[in-house]
Amino acid sequence: AQTVTQSQPEMSVQEAETVTLSCTYDTSENNYYLFWYKQPPSRQMILVIRQEAYKQQNATENRFSVNFQKAAKSFSLKISDSQLGDTAMYFCAFMPSAGTASKLTFGTGTRLQVTL
Amino acid sequence: NAGVTQTPKFRILKIGQSMTLQCTQDMNHNYMYWYRQDPGMGLKLIYYSVGAGITDKGEVPNGYNVSRSTTEDFPLRLELAAPSQTSVYFCASSSAGTWGGEQYFGPGTRLTVT
């Protein structure tokens, strides 16, 4: 079974600054997908960014980018130019590429507070 | 498209009562999922379905039942509610055959069992 660990329960960043959220995972699989989901106070789960393990290039989506280190099983999220609207819980998630139904395993989350 | 809808948004149950959480998606997705999120924790998979008539257990299925009679609907049944089932429940769906495809989540149902 896979496990996902987020070791930072809470983080704070000032508006316009950069912050990095950490995630490590454990798996014996070679091919898989990794995700970062955002959960604002509204509770809605929103996909932020996705990484395919067989791609060496780190994924980017506007102000969001990842640092994917496959050998170290590390998948951190960098948020640049932080905005107040980035305040949310952030969850790292793992999806195996084999098997049925594209099931996700989530970490416990990091609560990010963006301040003025 | 409405995406994934869930009803009710909130519910308080007494110990031993039963209820059904409704989930509907209008994206013609084959895959559907039920997760629960306990306070301060990530989401854990309860049950999932790969198509109408096919369901399977996830990580935490005890105390729950599901059915999938149509592509659109995936209700979650709680029998004999217990305080340990106090949680926020999320339904999600995704497209079959697209490995690594995005799961689309509903807004959640906050359930309290007292």
**Uncertain segments of chain A:** none
Number of strands of chain B: 11
Spans of chain B of 5+ residues with little confidence (pLDDT < 50)? none
What fraction of residues of chain A sit in β-strands? over 45%
Largest interface: A-B, 25 and 26 residues
Shape of chain A: globular
- Count of helices of chain A? 0
Order of helices and strands of chain A: EEEEEEEEEEEE
The major beta sheet of chain B can be summarized as:
7 strands, mixed
Distance from first to last alpha carbon of chain A: 41 Å
Q: How is the biggest beta sheet of chain A arranged? A: 6 strands, mixed
Quaternary? heterodimer
**CA-atom Rg of chain B in angstroms:** 13 Å
SSE succession of chain B? EEEEEEEEEEE
Shape call of chain B: globular
| Secondary structure: number of strands of chain A | 12
What class do helices, strands and sheet pairing of chain A give?
mainly beta
Distance between the termini of chain B: 36 Å
Fold and architecture overview:
The complex is a heterodimer of chains A (116) and B (114). Chain A is 0% helix and 52% strand. Chain A contains no helices and 12 strands. In chain A, a hairpin with a 2-residue loop joins β7 and β8 (64-69). Chain A has 116 residues and is mainly β. Chain B is mainly β. Chain B is built from no helices and 11 strands. In chain B, a hairpin with a 2-residue loop joins β5 and β6 (54-57). The radius of gyration of chain B is 13 Å and the shape is globular. The termini of chain B are far apart.
